[in-house]
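Appendix B. Raw example, untouched.
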Amino acid sequence: QVHLVESGGGLVQPGGSLRLSCAASRTIFSINTMAWYRQAPGKQRELVAVITPGGSTNYADSVKGRFTISRDNAKLVYLEMNSLKPEDTAVYYCFAQYGAGYWGQGTQVTVSS
């Protein structure tokens, strides 16, 4: 099993930045893939960014050039979000593929003036 805890969400003005963190209960290098998803009110959950154990990354078209997924040590994954837009408002979830898929509890990001 993998336990995931997100943090770093909050309220930010358009054009601002936030950094989300995801702390995993086991070393992420043993996890197949880690990713960030988001779900806005009334919409389906969507993939935002992915990072593999080898460090390869991939992004949704809507966030390319603005968001960066990275890992700092063996158990932390980050999502750096810049040039935030109101349409980025959502609950952001950390996901880990380790046999089964595991989700964190989510952290709210609100982009509003």
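End of appendix B.
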